[in-house]
Structure formats: structure tokens, C-alpha cells
Specification:
This protein is of the alpha+beta class. It contains 9 helices and 13 strands. It has a 5-stranded antiparallel β-sheet. A 5-stranded antiparallel β-sheet has the order 2-3-4-5-9, covered by helices on one side. Strands 8-12-13 form a 3-stranded mixed β-sheet, with helices on one face. β6 and β7 form a beta hairpin.
């Protein structure tokens, strides 16, 4: 096996675009080959605060990777419970970003309630495996052997209904908005981050994108564009151009990552992208305008002894009595839950972490570097 086969070279490109309707671009991308880190964020909030949330989130994740780079080189791939240490590192980075967005949101009235979706890939040093993290409805796709596969599941109201309330009355479902996200960075602390740990193959092509792309293009169009484009930069340009030709009612963010195949093996059966041969956009959502922005549920405020549920909706102008009533009809039955039992603390004395040397207190996992006790 050649060196390139063992260590496939990564090639990547990303870009954002305001689209044809929105006045502000609140999407952001991060391409950091030095960290093996690639990320897309789609912000939401009043007075362009969504841009602050998305940029802050990607900067925070990158900073966490930079600060933990020395420790990451000394950690084994799997911990004692069979958990990927690198996946835990990525999840901690997203949790750190979540806390930073919340803290900044509390510092200024104009930032209150801001949040962002996030989808990230982090590759191992030899690029033979990757960690995938996502929150919200920004997605990750993989094109392998010319077949497209969606690797993430949207954290959306529709999927929550399917998982938690499949028996919900159709009359209630019809009243629910179709563009509601139920998880976002900035929603609250702690945040549930969906994680996957996957092996890679030379020739893989990965797409990270905001819902502005998937709101314009169906999976077949995305697959066609990814297959005919020779380079990541060409693929990103084709995706954004095709969305804009179709009206692009939302901000657009696309980031394409290639694991370059060994010499003599083509990446895809590609003929090259040209505007004349590009597939046409097929709108898969109803068009929206600036007065009807995307809705992100930023959390539910619960009061002890009170069965009512109070939603905080972002952007605030999306809120209405009818919306809150419809959401309440869905969420109220989910509220009554038995709290989980407390996690027992070890009785041993406080000690320093064996990996980074900092004080662990009585924690089972080091709060500084994530190493197990």
C-alpha cells in the first residue's frame, strides 16, 4: 500500500453567500487543514446577531482545537469505555462554543437569544477516520463510489415528532411551523451534540452545508453537482450558483472536503462543471422573505409545579400567539419527566490529572483536557 493510500491528502474549499432574498449573511464556514477541522454554522437572531453567533461558534471551536493540540497527540484513540477520545474532544469544543455564545448573548440586549446551527468534521492526522458533530439542521453528506449519503439527521420539530410523538393528532401537526429547529448552539447549557465516528476511504467527498443549500436543492441535484465537479472549489461554486439561479431564499453555506484518491484512480466519473451542463435547481421548500425568517426554538422555560411550557423563539419577530399555542400543544406532554439519578462521586482524594497535570478535584473526567481519571 502506498503512502498516499495510508495517508490520503485532504483538499477542501468553502464559501458563503447571502442568497437572493435575505438582507444579511449569517452563515459562516471554517477551513483549517492544519487542525484537520472543517465547519459550517448557520446563525439566527435579531439585528444581525445570527452573524455574531455563527462567527463566535466557529472561532471558539477552532480555539479549543488549538489549545488541546499538544494533549491530543498523547491520547489513545479509544478510552476505557471504548469511546473515541477525538470525538469527545470535538464534542467538548462544541460545548465550549455553546457556553461562549450564551455568555456573549447575555452581555448585550441586541444579542439576547442569538444562536446558530453547527456541523463539523475533524479528521485524524492520517485522515483514515473522522469525527462528525452536528447541532440543528445544517447537514453533512458523503459521496462515495458516486452514491450520496446523508450522514446527519436534522434536529427539527418534524424529526422530534417522528421520534417522540408519532401519535400526535394530525390537526395539531398541521398547525405546527415547518421550519423549526429544536437544538442550536446558544440554546442552553448543557447542549446535546450528536456525534459520529467513521472510517474514511480515499476518493470520499464530503459536503457540509446550511439549510439554505438543502432548502433549494434536493438530494439528486446535490449528488449530480458533486459528481460532475472535479475540485472542491468548483463544487462549492456550482452549489451556490445553482441555488442563486433558483432564487436562493435563504443564506447559503457550502464546504466540500475531498480525500484525494491514489495516483491513477479517478475521484469520480467527472466531465467537469460548466453552467451549461449544471443540473437545474429544484426548490424543495416554499419561498420565504425577509419578513418571515427561519425559526429556532431557543429553549423551554419550566417552572416547578407548573405544567405550562414557555418558549423563547428566535428571531423574536417569528413569535405569535398562534405559534406558541401550537408549539405548546406539542411540547407540553413531553415536559413531565422523572429526573435522572445523581451520578455518584468517587470517594478518593482530589488528585492531579495524569495527562495534563492540572487539578481534577473529584471528577471522573479531567475538566481541562478530558482524560479519564
Amino acid at each position: 500500500m502506498s503512502e498516499l493510500q495510508r495517508n490520503p491528502r485532504i483538499s477542501a474549499a468553502g464559501a458563503t453567500d447571502a442568497g437572493k432574498v435575505r438582507l444579511h449573511n449569517e452563515d459562516a464556514v471554517l477551513v483549517r487543514p492544519d487542525l484537520g477541522l472543517y465547519l459550517v454554522a448557520d446563525g439566527a437572531g435579531g439585528q444581525n446577531a445570527g452573524n455574531v453567533a455563527s462567527m463566535l461558534a466557529i472561532a471558539s471551536v477552532a480555539h479549543h482545537f488549538e489549545s488541546t493540540a499538544p494533549v491530543s497527540k498523547t491520547m489513545p484513540p479509544l478510552g476505557e469505555l471504548g469511546m473515541s477520545w477525538s470525538a469527545r474532544r470535538l464534542s467538548r469544543a462544541v460545548q465550549s462554543a455553546n457556553r461562549e455564545v450564551i455568555e456573549v448573548a447575555r452581555s448585550r440586549n441586541t444579542y439576547q437569544g442569538m444562536g446558530t446551527t453547527l456541523v463539523a468534521l475533524a479528521f485524524s492526522p492520517d485522515a483514515t477516520r473522522l469525527d462528525l458533530a452536528h447541532v440543528g439542521d445544517s447537514r453533512c453528506y458523503r459521496l462515495r463510489d458516486a452514491a450520496l449519503e446523508q450522514l446527519t439527521e436534522d434536529h427539527s420539530l418534524a424529526n422530534d415528532i417522528l421520534e417522540l410523538r408519532p401519535d400526535l393528532d394530525d390537526a395539531v401537526i398541521r398547525k405546527l411551523p415547518k421550519n423549526v429547529i429544536t437544538r442550536a448552539v446558544g440554546m442552553g447549557d448543557p447542549l446535546r451534540v450528536s456525534m459520529r465516528f467513521l472510517p474514511t476511504r480515499p476518493g470520499d467527498r464530503y459536503l457540509l452545508c446550511s439549510d439554505g443549500i438543502t432548502g433549494c436543492l434536493d438530494d439528486q441535484t446535490i449528488s449530480d453537482l458533486l459528481r460532475v465537479c472535479k475540485t472542491p472549489d468548483e463544487a462549492v461554486r456550482a452549489l451556490i450558483d445553482t441555488c442563486n439561479e433558483g432564487g436562493a431564499p435563504d443564506n447559503l453555506a457550502a464546504l466540500v472536503v475531498d480525500l484525494v484518491a491514489p495516483p491513477g484512480e479517478p475521484m469520480f466519473p467527472s466531465h467537469g462543471y460548466t453552467p451549461a451542463t449544471a443540473p437545474k435547481a429544484r426548490i424543495v421548500r416554499s419561498p420565504i422573505d425577509e419578513s418571515a425568517p427561519e425559526i429556532v426554538i431557543m429553549g423551554m422555560d419550566e417552572n416547578d409545579g407548573d405544567d405550562s411550557t414557555s418558549f423563547r423563539v428566535v428571531p423574536a419577530e417569528s413569535s405569535s400567539p398562534n405559534l406558541l399555542e401550537a408549539l405548546g400543544n406539542y411540547a407540553a406532554p413531553l415536559r413531565k419527566k422523572t429526573p435522572p439519578p445523581p451520578i455518584p462521586r468517587p470517594d478518593s482524594k482530589a488528585e492531579a490529572c495524569r495527562a495534563c497535570g492540572k487539578a481534577m478535584g473529584h471528577a471522573l473526567v479531567c475538566p481541562h483536557c478530558g482524560a479519564p481519571r
